[in-house]
User: Which sequence fits this backbone?
């Protein structure tokens, strides 16, 4: 079936291309800050925390998301940061 | 108490003014008392689309500046005695009116009219802010093109930020033949991307061009776009109307092709 439908369709439909491009553009437009600013923010957060704790940079997850407030149905933007700390953190030397 | 509806899109040229003219005329045909307000100061168009350009004496700016009373500026439609137009000024710019003044004007008109339709200019600047200031709900017009859909998404966000959340989508100028070939976003695709409820799909119809030439809205006619606009009007009034089948009769080969496209 795939072969036959591809035969009629040729390559990917231009409407599918449009939909995928739009999905990306809209997601980026809706974000509170641009991907570049977000990357910069991540790097600075990591830099500051690394001064005090030995963090696992691989397992790190920092993102902007929306959440519903508990006492109302209002949604707010939140910055979620999940930063795993390595076990040897207590011995981590504080840089001066 | 009348309802204030803003017709907006973000991008220019997607059919806001045509939609305002047709939805407004359709609501009047259904017996409602309607006023259309052209908020595009400096680039007025709703008057020509309605065929009322020769009757303008006073404008929106005159009303706001108290040069005249509201009643003096309202132009009665040629065909429907319960339909009025408040034209925009051609010689001023957007800053001639403030959102507060627009809200006050809209509220004053609520006592007199069932529906107050605001034809919004393109863009997201002062003209947009003026148009949405007094609105209870919005009709967002888009065409199935990337630029128009993206702008519509921005507009939905801005309406939301201004607490206008009763919003509905009109997909304008849809070409079913191109959708079928996979070369145009379908109305389902657009709804899926924007995440708001659809209130109408208007097919790309050359009758619209002809109607605009003569200054007579197409709504209510037998043309497909005319029917689509009338259905939108009924849905605005809260009626449940099934969506039109916009498909043209397909040839045998096209039907055969469609089976394999699934």
Assistant:
């Amino acid at each position: 079936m795939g072969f036959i439908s591809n035969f009629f369709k040729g390559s990917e439909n231009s409407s599918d291309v449009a939909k995928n491009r739009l999905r990306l553009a809209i997601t980026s437009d809706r974000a509170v800050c641009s991907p570049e600013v977000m990357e910069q923010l991540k790097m600075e957060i990591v830099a500051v925390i690394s001064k005090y704790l030995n963090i696992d940079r691989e397992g790190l997850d920092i993102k902007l998301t929306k959440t519903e407030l508990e006492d109302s149905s209002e949604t707010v933007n939140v910055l979620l940061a999940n930063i795993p700390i390595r076990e040897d953190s207590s011995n981590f030397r504080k840089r001066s | 108490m009348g309802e204030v509806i803003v017709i907006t899109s973000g991008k220019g040229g997607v059919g806001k003014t045509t939609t305002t003219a047709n939805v407004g005329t359709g609501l009047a045909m259904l017996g409602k008392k309607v006023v259309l307000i052209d908020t595009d100061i400096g680039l007025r168009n709703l008057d020509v689309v309605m065929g009322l350009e020769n009757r303008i004496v006073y404008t929106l700016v005159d009303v706001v500046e108290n040069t005249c009373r509201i009643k003096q500026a309202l132009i009665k439609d040629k065909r429907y005695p319960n339909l009025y137009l408040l034209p925009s000024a051609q010689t001023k710019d957007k800053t001639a009116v403030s959102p507060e003044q627009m809200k006050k004007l809209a509220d004053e008109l609520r006592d007199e009219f069932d529906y107050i339709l605001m034809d919004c200019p393109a863009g997201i600047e002062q003209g947009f802010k003026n148009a949405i200031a007094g609105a209870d709900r919005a009709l967002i017009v888009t065409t199935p093109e990337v630029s128009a859909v993206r702008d519509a998404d921005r507009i939905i966000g801005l309406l939301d930020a201004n607490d206008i959340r009763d919003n509905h989508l009109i997909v304008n100028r849809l070409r079913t033949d191109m959708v079928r070939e996979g070369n145009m976003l379908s109305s389902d695709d657009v709804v899926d991307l924007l995440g708001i409820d659809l209130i109408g799909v208007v097919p790309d119809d050359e009758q619209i061009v002809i109607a605009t030439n003569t200054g007579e809205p197409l709504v209510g006619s037998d043309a497909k776009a005319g029917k689509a606009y009338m259905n939108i009007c009924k849905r605005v009034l809260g009626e449940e109307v099934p969506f039109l089948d916009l498909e043209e009769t397909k040839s045998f080969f096209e039907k055969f092709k469609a089976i394999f496209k699934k």
Summary: Chain A has one domain: 2-91.
